[in-house]
Amino acid sequence: MKKLLLLTLSLILLFSCASVEMGPTSHSIAVLSTTDMHGRAASKDVATGKEDINSMPRVATAVEAVRESFGDSMLVIDNGDTIQGNLLAQYAINFKIDVINPMVSAMAYIGYDVWTMGNHEFNFLPNQRDTQVLFAEKEGISCLSGNVTLLEDGLNVHGDKAKAGDPFYQPYEIFTFKFDDGLKAKVAVIGLGNAANANWDLATNYPNLSFSSLENKDGILANEIDKWVNVVRNKEKADIVIVAVHSGLGSADSFSLESQTLMAAQATSGVDLIICGHDHQANITITKNSVGEDVTIVNGGGKALTESILTIDFEKGKVTGLSIESSLTSLDSVTPDETLSQMMDEWYNETYQWASAPIGSFDNGWNNFKAEAEGKSNNDMILSQTALMDFIHKAQIWCTWQSEGVEGATVSFASPVFGTNANKELSFVPADGDTISTLELSKLYRYSNNLLCAVELTGQELYNWMNCVANMYSIKDGKVSMGEGVSIYGLDTFYGVDYEIDPSKENDSKLVKAEINGVDVREISSVKVALNSYRLSGGYGFAEATGKSESDCFWTASQYLGSDRAPVPTQIGEYVKAMGVVSPSDKVSHGYDSTWSIIE
Fold first, then answer.
1. Paired sense of beta strands 240-245 and 184-192, if any
2. d(Cα 510, Cα 515) in Å, to the nearest integer?
3. What H or E segment, with its residue span, contains residue 28?
4. d(Cα 346, Cα 328) in Å, to the nearest integer?
5. pTM score > 0.85 for this model?
6. pLDDT per residue as tens digits for the range 402-451
7. For residue 217, with 0-12 CB atoms within 10 Å meaning exposed, 13-18 middle and 19 or more buried, which class applies?
8. End-to-end Cα, the chain, rounded Å
9. 366 FRET partner, CA 20 to 30 A, in 113, 172, 192, 401?
10. Chain mean position to CA 67
11. Which interval of the chain is the signal sequence (predicted)?
12. Which domains does the chain have, with CATH numbers?
């Protein structure tokens, strides 16, 4: 009887084990992602005092809802452009460098697993950015960017010796999911940054770094993906591969260095899910890879949490198949997490106290110029000269003269980057009696990542850039407009130079006048110019027109004043403080007041 019982039990165990080993089964994990959150750690926006409908406390609520179903069987990934973008971010990165950033705190609270470096992370000096990287890693967040590599032998972000071509940041992370029945799946997350970073930021922000592998000089995203997929598939034996890349979706037909995700997805294989970003467009795209398999691409666009449910098939203990279902949860559809909101209250209050302190006022004639800007967009502000843009120019010129022993600029370049409302109209237009604080300046100059610089050009180089800008204008339906494919971020207005542009003429003939105090700029030997770091990084044809880069600067606010005073809006604030009262009739401090027009 005892032998019969043992035999029966043995048979039961045999068939039970056989069913686990032989029978197919499946398990699911959730992969969540955000991208382009741009400093929105608090529930309210400091600049407006209103609820921020795309904030991290709302992300926290959305993530927790998924965690209730999936528990530990999930990954949460942020795809970059995280610690820059609003007043709270500006305050934290410039005045609280050695304190954990509110966005990093928010990611830690929510339980993020990965943070990929975006292009705006490189708006800052290494000590600002990489201090936060190390804080994030202490919180258990892997900071990835496999295509940010060393140009020469040196040190990586952890201070370890590294060779030229080695990644500065960790290129990937491996996550092993173990299920109750003993099955497990190995998931690799590869992080990649934007290949076009060098077009936007000064080299001092990323010393000895390249934004593509040294053997991939053209920055082709597909090459970077192939490189690291080969490593994680063959060396790490990953069952599933996720690529988190801070690149826009782009087109399958035309190459764009900053937005090449779709093209890369179709040119590679071995990737199961791609998380992209940068273009602020929330979407889900399914395409075919190079061997005809489906690849899902998700992008939260700064306004949604992406949720991808990966159903993993197993047979004989091995991963044999995978299916993916992705969706978007709009952040404006969920309520903020109260605990995280309260955690950020101190940051909000500190930032508001700093930003709302009065530093001057508008008066003496601004009411007469309101029609120039009210109801107008940034695109409208390049169609005619305005007192508001002249104010930006006068401030930039003045600031370059405030360092002892430095003879500053007499000409200013700037494109309109005013804050706008939901209708893309300027959100703040000065009136007589208005107080000026950092709050107002954030609406008059949106990008605190733009740093003030000054460079000396020959008159011909100045003319070349002005000619390049003139070529950006065109006539459409009988009206002056920006040309096809032209970005407002590349179209400068100028001060200190009298000029006229005729968009009806052929390219290279549109700049019909460019004079300084009655002298053709081409006849002038040298001109000192105030401009921002974004322009100086060389994009939109500036490098080709002038041949100038950061190394040619005779003055930068960072070098002479420190990183906390270097942002253009901060420098404008110093001008306002010195002036006390700012009026449209204020004379430029150095050089000549000027006029410009577009011939219609």
1. parallel
2. 15
3. strand 25-34
4. 31
5. yes
6. 999 999 999 999 999 999 998 999 999 999 999 999 999 999 999 988 99
7. exposed
8. 107
9. 401
10. 28
11. 1-18
12. 25-346 (3.60.21.10), 358-598 (3.90.780.10)
